[in-house]
Design goal:
The chain has 129 residues and is an alpha+beta fold. 22% of the residues lie in helices and 44% in strands. It has helices spanning 6-10, 42-57, 122-128, and strands at 14-19, 22-28, 64-73, 82-93, 96-105, 108-119. The two termini are 18 Å apart.
Length: 129
Amino acid sequence: MLAADEASRGLGIELLEHGEGTAVLRMTVTPAMVNGHRLAHGGYLFLLADTAFACACNSHGPVTVAAGADIDFVAPAYEGDVLVATARERTRFGRSGIYDVSVVRGETVVAEFRGRSRTIRSTEREESS
């Protein structure tokens, strides 16, 4: 799935580890990712966390998409920072799941993300096309 993700690959996001319900990804904040305050734009932090979430929730096989997500920005990130996003499955129930993602710079937590997933049936995918 990540190999076909043009948005994430275009930002240099790398998959470091993956397993059942887990994923660890890395991204370096580039000059194009900073806002007018010279801080990493929150949208890029969300994208990194969301990509880790996607890798973790799709680790079980069926096509799984985001039903919703929230993020809390805890500390700023800056140009040149190497960020690591670690996604962990909290629970799966029926076709739904809950995943937590921590984004860190070294030992410093930059953001905490919670994603809610939904496994889709092939007919749902075809209907939305």
